[in-house]
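Sample intake sheet
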Amino acid sequence: MLYYYYFPFWESFLTACGAKVKLSPPTNKSILQRGLELAEGEICLPVKAFIGHVAVLASEVDYLLAPRVVKPVKKGYSCPKLLGLPDIVRGLFATTSKLLFPLVNQERERESLADWLEIGRKISGLSYWKLKRAYRIARCVQQKVEKSRQRVGYQADGGLRVGLIGHPYILRDSYLSLSLVERLRKKGVEVYLSEEVGRNQIRRAVSGLPKPLFWSFEEELVGAALFWTQNNLAYGLILVNSFGCGPDSLSQVLIETEISKHREMPFLNLIIDEHTSEAGFLTRLEAFLDMLVWRKINAG
């Protein structure tokens, strides 16, 4: 799940330690089915997919990496299910692989560093100073990639511009999202992804809220929606969230409430789970795009 956030750091550090990084295949029907067989029914779809990916890798690797992400930023926590991923892996796959659970906590960076150095020592035997250097280089790689993801400018060519709000582990997973990004782009839609909005832009966008958001990944979604709305950048917003995700259900209501205060903004909420019908999903999407085109023509 957090591959889409932290893989540049993971790959850089582990490679520097002499490890060969093995990835599971892209999500497919068999991977998701394996996750459904192992997971509790109340767990959200992305975690079920995550479990399926672990099942694919567990018997094929010497070590299995599942970091415990507590605080991705200094003021905000990750959702309880993300925080508990190491415990899920330990409970389901403890006998099949050596498990690595480093801490990710921006308020306890020394502990996080110590965890990563211990992992490096375990898999490489390198000296403390070489491991610390590898850690610093990996941090720089991560920061450069994050900066490169941020959208520098926004199109003003008269095309249909849509802000797509959702976690990368849904939107960038073609199987879980039913290739939503690709479908929109094939229709000539200029797609703005919430992960492309910079951290400073998010902070400014949410600064007017009554209080800070508790969940940091949900703050990204709300901040992106408000940034596009406040700056009149998109003709409509599409939110894609997972059924059974508590934080997402709260961010959905907050987004709808806040964007209504600025101007009339067309908004579509697509909720996915393992039972989502592709036909129904696409019908709602087509109707929403037709409405945006109609509004754009009449507004012009």
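Comment: The first helix runs from residue 3 to 16. Residues 3-149 form one domain.
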